[in-house]
Amino acid sequence: MAIIGISGSPTPNSNVDRMVQMLLHESGKETKFVKLSKLNFFPCRGCAHLCAATAMCGQKDDLHPFLADIRDAEALVIGSPRHHGTMTASTYSFFSRLWCFLHDNCVIYHKPVVFVSSGLCDKEHARGTFGASLVQEHEFNVLGEVYYQSFNPPCIKCGKGNTCMNHGGLWNLLGRNEEALRNYDLSAHHFTQFEEDQETIDEIIRYGKILSTL
After folding, report:
1. With contact defined as beta carbons under 8 Å apart, do 20 and 77 qualify?
2. Per-residue pLDDT tens over the stretch 16-62
3. What dihedral do alpha carbons 65, 67, 69, 72 form, nearest 10°?
4. Which of 95, 162, 197, 199 is the most buried (most CB within 10 A)?
């Protein structure tokens, strides 16, 4: 049975995408990678009359063909960058669609999962990325979480990175220092990649070995 990797990152070939893909590779097993931003799908619509009897979602959109793979997978690797202190909206919608598996017989109960995330905050503050009750109610067997502290605030490419002192990630990253913000070099070389961080690579390899033993 394959291990399914899901990325909720909206950015093409993002750190989260590549981290999920490396974890799949390190497992040494048959795998399948799903990029949510390439799918046209909807969140759960609460139509329990369509899924309670079948334990399968009744919405026939781009996500539907992958649901059986997710149900039957040996394990899942689910990734999302931190947006507003939590997972992305598409990742949240994805978890809502797994509700079809939570009826009389919870067919994904205790399924092994590794979570993958990246963001500006340190690891201690990143623990809540997948902390929503929507995730917890599935009662996954959480093997662990790989987190990469990137330094890639959207401010670097938004066009107002050196002036925004409201909710800008760069403003907070620089300790709300107006002079540091004004003088910050916004060139592309500031974008960081997880492949530059040996600790993150070691974590991916470690969880890949764990997945290989399932």
Report:
1. yes
2. 999 999 999 999 999 999 999 999 999 999 888 888 888 899 899 99
3. -150
4. 95
**How far from chain centre, in Å, is Cα 152?**
16
Helices (H) and strands (E) in the chain, counts: 9, 5
Q: Using an 8 Å Cβ cutoff, are 194 and 210 in contact?
A: no
The partner residues of 112 in beta bridges, in order of sequence, read: 141
The mean pLDDT of 187-200, rounded to a whole number, is 83
Burial 69-93, CB ≥16 within 10 A → b, else e: ebbebbbbbbbbbbbeebbbebbbb
DSSP conformation letters of 155-196: HHHHS-TTT--SS-HHHHHTTT-HHHHHH----GGG---GGG
Contacts of 117 (CB under 8 A, 6+ apart): 16, 79, 80, 81, 82, 87, 126, 129, 130, 145, 146, 147, 148
Residues in CB range of 85: below 8 A, 6 or more apart: 128
184 conformational bin, left if phi > 0, alpha if psi -120 to 50, beta if neither: beta
Is the Cβ–Cβ distance between 190 and 120 less than 8 Å? no
> Which tokens hold the place of 52?
């309670």
Provide the whole-model pTM: 0.88
Query: Which residues 6+ apart lie within 8 Å of 214 measured at CB?
Result: 74, 75, 112
